[in-house]
């Protein structure tokens, strides 16, 4: 865990960015955030809040979807990176794991993992050692290493996607909706692995997640997005205890459990923005 009393080096700095799709649709409206080295930072919010767009703005994957950062700055290790192509960012140690468990379905699990080492030049021995490291964190993948990835389960494909990212020797992983479509037990397992990789390998995580409850238990710091804006941020432990977060994202209030769908959006915005 991060020492709350110790200032950590900032790896990623997003400063007041706006993102527009198709030259007309404003999706992000002045989003700012910072990601400290060695931490787990969570982007939280409902579907359409802007979490995935924020990750793609950082990883420079917007252009493939006719999106662009039109205002603001993105710096990694003090260097402006928003004009780099995605491959150049990977060489700097920033890798995104896309939503939806993308993998090469016709390749085996192990072949998928090895594609993550494609940009490396440190030799077969180091790559093999990291492959064993991935199998240590994901023993299920070792059991299925000869299986065609397209025939593995959703949870196993999520593990393949994360393992492939680890094979690139990343400094920072951008992890998009790791819990989507997975059973609760698998979600706990995936987040426990994220925590272990963070603590034992020193990998920094910026993760986008709709499951606020589980994300705030494993993250160090969180940002809550609504309609393309950051409406609240703070240490994860404080957000867990915030009455608004409890009521609207964790399904709890002083009156007991309350459905998020029963609360009008304007009430939420009025309380947070007042």
Fold and architecture overview:
There is one protein chain. By secondary structure, this protein is α/β, with parallel strands linked by helices. The protein is 36% helix and 27% strand. It is built from eleven helices and twelve strands. The protein has helices at 51-59, 86-91, 109-115, 124-137, 139-143, 154-166, 184-201, 212-218, 236-241, 243-248, 265-273, and strands at 10-21, 25-36, 40-44, 67-76, 79-80, 94-97, 172-176, 204-209, 221-226, 229-235, 252-253, 256-257. A six-stranded mixed β-sheet has the order 6-7-8-3-9-10, sandwiched between helices. Strands 2-1-4-5 form a four-stranded antiparallel β-sheet, covered by helices on one side. A hairpin with a 2-residue loop joins strand 4 and strand 5. The longest helix has 18 residues, at 184-201. The two termini are 33 Å apart.
List the helices and strands and how they pair.
Layout: E1 10-21, E2 25-36, E3 40-44, H1 51-59, E4 67-76, E5 79-80, H2 86-91, E6 94-97, H3 109-115, H4 124-137, H5 139-143, H6 154-166, E7 172-176, H7 184-201, E8 204-209, H8 212-218, E9 221-226, E10 229-235, H9 236-241, H10 243-248, E11 252-253, E12 256-257, H11 265-273
Parallel strand pairs: 3-8, 3-9, 6-7, 7-8
Antiparallel strand pairs: 1-2, 1-4, 4-5, 9-10, 11-12
Helix pairs in contact: 3-6
């Amino acid at each position: 865990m991060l020492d709350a009393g110790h200032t950590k080096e900032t790896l990623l700095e997003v400063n007041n960015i706006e993102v527009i799709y198709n030259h007309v649709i404003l999706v992000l409206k002045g989003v700012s955030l910072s990601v400290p080295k060695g931490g787990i930072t969570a982007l939280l919010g409902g579907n359409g809040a802007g979490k995935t767009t924020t990750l793609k703005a950082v990883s420079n994957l917007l252009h493939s979807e006719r999106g662009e950062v039109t205002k603001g700055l993105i710096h990694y290790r003090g260097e402006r990176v928003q004009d780099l192509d995605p491959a150049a960012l990977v060489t700097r140690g920033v890798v995104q794991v896309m939503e939806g468990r993308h993998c090469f379905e016709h390749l085996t699990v192990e072949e998928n993992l090895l594609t993550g080492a494609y940009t490396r030049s440190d030799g077969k021995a180091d790559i093999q050692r990291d492959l064993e490291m991935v199998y240590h964190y994901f023993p299920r993948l070792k059991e299925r290493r000869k299986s065609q990835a397209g025939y593995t389960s959703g949870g196993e494909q999520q593990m393949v996607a994360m393992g492939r990212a680890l094979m690139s020797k990343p400094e920072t992983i951008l992890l998009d909706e790791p819990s989507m479509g997975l059973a609760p037990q698998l979600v706990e397992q995936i987040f426990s692995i994220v925590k272990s990789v963070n603590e034992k390998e020193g990998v920094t995580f910026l993760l986008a997640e709709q499951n606020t409850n589980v994300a705030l238990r494993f993250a160090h710091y969180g940002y809550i997005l609504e309609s393309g804006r950051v409406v609240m941020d703070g240490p994860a432990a404080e957000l867990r205890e915030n009455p608004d977060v409890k009521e609207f994202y964790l399904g709890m209030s002083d009156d007991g459990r309350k459905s998020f769908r029963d609360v009008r959006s304007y009430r939420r915005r009025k309380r947070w923005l007042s």
